[in-house]
Amino acid sequence: MKRIIILLIPLCIGVLLTLSCQRNGHAAQQLLRQADSARTAGDYALAYRLIDSLNKTYLTDTINRRLGMSLKRAVMSEEAARNRRYIDSLMPMMQRRIDSTLRDFTLYGNTQYGTPQEYFHPSLLPDQNRNRSYLRAAIQEGGNCTLTSVYQGNHVLNHTAVKLRMMPDDITAATESVAYDGGLNYRYRDGSLFNELVSYQPQQSQAVIQMIQQAAHEKKSLRMAYLSESGKTLHEIALSPADVQALAQTLQLSDLLMQRNALQRDAEKADRRMTRLQDQTPN
How do strand 186-190 and strand 134-139 relate by DSSP bridges? Predict the structure, then answer.
């Protein structure tokens, strides 16, 4: 009797394993059906989660895992195609806004020094502002907006940063301190006048950028202090309402160009994904 029981144990285990595999197979197939339904409905995030759940739960089910990978490639391809269509629908409207805004700007570059061409609001052009202290903005081809604090006066400041004060709220925002390098940040003397220019990249002037946009929107006045490396105020001026509006319009154009460039990058990414997935599809 014991011998019969011992002989039956492997058979029972085999039956249990078979039943377990069948149940697991049915559950995996159910996940695949749900993922495919999500794909059909355009809920690609849910489809990804269901396929990932299948891969993590049924590690030994190679057949359904392989089917899941095929389904995932289909989801990725359809998602990329959807993203491309969405970008194509947005791009003409975005370009019209940019073209309309660009009509108010001038493309300027100093050929004498070989500086790259940048977009300037006409009232902030360097050639039009040789005899005053002010804050100017210029947009590079990629859409980045560089702020430059320009000082002209009878004494040396050696400033490395600026701080804006919005009135009458008495709120302040400052750039990061930028070291003198003799390149983008330089100083020179013209007769009895001392000139200093310090340029701030977007990541160095985010708080100031936000304050300019807020002041223009709320029609608040701004004062600008030139700061030493230690943060001491060396000189202070008032930014004219016209300058504040010109700076805000420049920042708006920068935002539009950055958004367009981001859309172009997303479109290229979608195209690459569709091409790669098409190449991976069996003939």
Answer: unpaired
pTM exceeds 0.90, yes or no: no
Alpha-carbon span 8 to 14, nearest angstrom? 10
Which whole number is the average pLDDT over 79-93? 94
8 A C-beta contact, residue 224 and residue 239:
yes
Q: In this predicted model, what pLDDT tens digit does every residue of 15-28 receive, in sequence order?
A: 333 333 455 568 88
Contact 255, 202 (CB under 8 A): no
Q: Are 87 and 274 in contact (CB under 8 A)?
A: no
Could you give the CA distance from residue 98 to residue 165 in angstroms, rounded to a whole number?
30
pLDDT in tens, 182-199: 887 899 999 999 999 999
Residue appearing with tokens 């805000």: 248
Q: What is the DSSP letter of 230?
A: T
Helix 2-41 to helix 62-102 angle (10° resolution) is: 20
